[in-house]
Design brief:
By secondary structure, the protein is α/β, with parallel strands linked by helices. It has a single domain (26-201), classed as P-loop containing nucleotide triphosphate hydrolases (Rossmann fold, 3-Layer(aba) Sandwich). It is built from 7 helices and 9 strands. It has helices spanning 12-18, 27-34, 53-68, 79-93, 123-131, 157-170, 186-193, and strands at residues 43-46, 71-76, 99-102, 118-122, 140-145, 175-180, 196-199, 210-213, 216-219. Strands 3-4-2-5-6-1-7 form a 7-stranded parallel β-sheet, sandwiched between helices. It is globular and about 60 Å long.
């Protein structure tokens, strides 16, 4: 699928950004579009690292902001990653979408977020915002959960699991876009999320397996 195929299906401002960067969608991105990404369907995307998962999330989030006037929340597991995403998204979309970073004091209500469109945060902070009854939560149309396999993490997993459960209860029509490179039970997780499963094994650089011994690597066939 070429980027031209999305013309008229996504907002013109978003299309104008993407056409400068890419000419053809990667396999997982095409599968996501064909699975209802642009129609608001929830998706669980399981594909290798660098296969284009972030753009799938961006298509859903920015489209909801521009077409519906709604908010989008992008959840990442680490503050450093949140800062990275914030800078990237602000540089790309700051001309027509207000991007905010919220990773600070868990006791703060961050009321200023009501004025922003795309909010980058971590699960613990979003959980705190919900418990402080942040009124803008109800305006959220898309929730992206990056590295969702961390639900299996004994330390942070329970917070993420509870957070997703609460969001689905609060936002009956929310579009969940969950991303991961490695999930042992993707079908089961997709069913729990109420999401379509997008699987693909394409990667930009071929992965080869080998054995290192005495300074040399012997690759298998």
């Amino acid at each position: 699928m070429r980027i031209e195929d999305l013309k008229g299906k996504i907002p013109q401002q978003l299309y104008s950004v993407l056409e400068k960067e890419i000419t053809e969608l990667r396999p997982a991105q095409e599968k996501a579009v064909n699975s209802g990404l642009l129609e608001g369907k929830s998706l669980l995307v399981c594909t290798p690292t660098s296969s284009g998962k972030t753009l799938i999330a961006e298509l859903a989030a920015i489209s909801a902001i521009l077409e519906k006037g709604k908010k989008a929340v992008y959840i990442v597991p680490l503050k450093a990653l949140a800062n990275e995403k914030y800078n990237d998204f602000k540089n790309r979309y700051g001309g027509f979408a207000k991007v905010a970073l919220s990773i600070g004091d868990l006791d703060a209500t961050d009321s200023y977020l009501a004025d922003y469109d795309l909010i980058i945060t971590v699960s613990e902070k979003l959980d705190s915002l919900i418990r402080h009854y942040a009124p803008w939560i109800s305006m959220t149309s898309v929730v992206v959960v990056d590295e969702i396999h961390l639900m299996n993490d004994p330390g942070r997993g329970p917070t993420l699991e509870v957070l997703i459960t609460i969001l689905r209860q609060l936002l009956k029509n929310v579009q969940l876009v969950a991303l991961s490179a490695t999930i042992g039970n993707p079908e089961e997780l997709a069913e729990w999320l109420g999401a379509e499963l997008v699987l693909d094994d394409w990667r930009p650089v071929k992965l080869r397996k080998g054995i290192y011994l005495d300074g040399e690597v012997e690759f298998g066939d």
